[in-house]
């Protein structure tokens, strides 16, 4: 807890801006936790709350705007070939695209609040040719609400934020292990179900022929 406080005291602007920027590029970073801790630091008088919000907001919108440009410039063939190295598998791109076709601007507006979406919505918007001005409006508007929500959450928690951090430090390793086990079980079950479904389709095709 103390090391994180010192980190924010000395490099708070860089952590918030750089961290949220990198997260927007699909680089793993605990953006919500960083914003909440920044809000907590503002409650102690260590950082002005508007400064916390501004640095996080700028990092988020500059990052997502850059991803839109990359998506538009590189196009679908690039991400179909190399997207797996950025966790952008074809199925994920197709899923986000279908959501955007169904719900349009609403997806861009709320994507910051949906893990697994906000990291890729900019890329997919660029790939699909989503109107740039519309993307900017809804993306930037959604980012305002997202940043304000987590910064003020940390600020309102105040001293309780320390308890949250202590719990994370104490049980973080086991929580990660538990999540990893659950994910592994989910993948195995999904593969088994997919295999059984494929076999059922093969038998049906054979019986039909």
Record keyword descriptors for this entry.
83% helix; globular; 209 residues; single chain; mainly alpha; 8 helices
Ordered list of secondary-structure elements with their pairings:
Blueprint: H1 2-24, H2 31-43, H3 49-82, H4 90-103, H5 105-110, H6 121-128, H7 132-157, H8 160-208
Helix pairs in contact: 1-2, 1-3, 2-3, 2-7, 3-6, 3-7, 4-6
Outline the structure in words.
The longest helix is centred in the C-terminal third of the chain and has 49 residues, at 160-208. The protein starts with a helix and ends with a helix. The protein has helices at 2-24, 31-43, 49-82, 90-103, 105-110, 121-128, 132-157, 160-208. It contains 8 helices and no strands. With 209 residues, it is mainly alpha-helical. It has 2 domains: 2-158, no CATH class; 172-209. Mean pLDDT is 81; it is low at 171-176. Residues 29-155 form the VTT domain. This is DedA family protein. InterPro entries: DedA_domain (IPR051311), VTT_dom (IPR032816).
- The overall number of domains is 2
Helix share, percent: over 70%
Enumerate the spans where pLDDT stays under 50 for 5 or more consecutive residues. 171-176
Q: Which structural category fits the helices and strands?
A: mainly alpha
Estimated radius of gyration: 20 Å
Shape: globular
Strand content: under 5%
Summarize the structure.
The protein is mainly alpha-helical and about 210 residues long. Helices cover about 85% and strands about 0% of the residues. Keywords: Membrane, Transmembrane, Transmembrane helix.
């Amino acid at each position: 807890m103390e090391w994180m406080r010192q980190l924010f005291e000395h490099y708070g602007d860089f952590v918030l801006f750089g961290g949220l920027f990198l997260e927007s590029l699909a680089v793993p970073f605990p953006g919500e936790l960083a914003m909440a801790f920044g809000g907590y630091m503002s409650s102690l008088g260590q950082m002005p709350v508007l400064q916390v919000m501004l640095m996080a907001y700028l990092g988020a919108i500059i990052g997502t705007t850059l991803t839109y440009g990359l998506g538009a410039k590189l196009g679908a063939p690039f991400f179909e070939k190399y997207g797996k190295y950025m966790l952008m598998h074809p199925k994920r791109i197709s899923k986000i695209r279908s959501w955007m076709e169904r719900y349009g601007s609403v997806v861009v507006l709320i994507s910051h609040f949906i893990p697994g979406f906000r990291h890729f919505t900019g890329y997919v918007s660029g790939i699909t040719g989503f109107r740039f001005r519309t993307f900017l409006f809804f993306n930037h508007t959604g980012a305002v609400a997202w940043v304000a929500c987590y910064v003020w959450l940390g600020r309102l928690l105040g001293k309780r934020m320390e308890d949250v951090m202590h719990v994370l430090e104490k049980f973080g390793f086991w929580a990660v292990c538990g999540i990893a086990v659950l994910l592994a079980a989910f993948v195995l079950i999904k593969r088994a179900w997919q295999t059984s479904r494929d076999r059922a389709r093969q038998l049906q095709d054979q019986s039909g022929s």
